[in-house]
Write a structure and sequence with these properties.
This protein has 251 residues and is of the alpha/beta class. Helices cover 39% and strands 18% of the residues.
Length: 251
Amino acid sequence: MDMDVVYKKSAALEDVEMHYCPGCTHGIIHKLVAEVIEELDILGDTIGVAPVGCAVFAYDYFACDMHEAAHGRAPAVATGIKRALPDKMVFTYQGDGDLAAIGTAEIVHAAMRGEKITTIFVNNTNYGMTGGQMAPTTLVGQKVTTAPLGRSQEHYGSPIKVSEMLSTIDGAAYIERVTVHNMPGIIRAKKAIKKAFQLQQEGAGFTLVEVLSTCPTNWGLTPNDSLDWLEKNMIPVFPLGVYRDISAKEK
């Protein structure tokens, strides 16, 4: 008897087990990126760049060509790839400890130059891979291994808001912040990722989708509690929405 196929893993993902901790939403974000690549029929023409951090093994999971970059340098590597191979779709997959700290200059200047690349920016408010240290996006009062009493605004400043900052740069074509902590958020996140890739196809300029993500292990919470914590604590500090969209201005 023939069986109806109700779900099939994207062809843009390798058939391997992921290393992410239980409840981590990196896997969901990988799935969305892979589905977009498959739906746009660009698997054979896509090159991803994975830097250091929890995303370091993304090259094992995506079925497209992947390139490894030093910590924070993914936008610089992606720039070189895109300029050498302008007909290829090029994306970076970066965490907040990578993009918003050691890689701040790279992401700002890639946007300033209007590099025709797409960045998937995963924000989970800490250095996930190396033990939960404070990141530039750590919330005020949030306890992390390098600030066990909580982040002090007086001592460490406020969390950096990458989407808001990059939205002020003329070379940025599309900047949106989304979340994957619930189904409506996941649906919206996929639409944002797809639009970012489509605008790159059109040569519009630099595109970035910031995805609010959980880190149950370093937050010291269960997977379910992490989803609630994200909604109650992260979204008020990092509001969801489109921060820049040049295609909307053209309409």
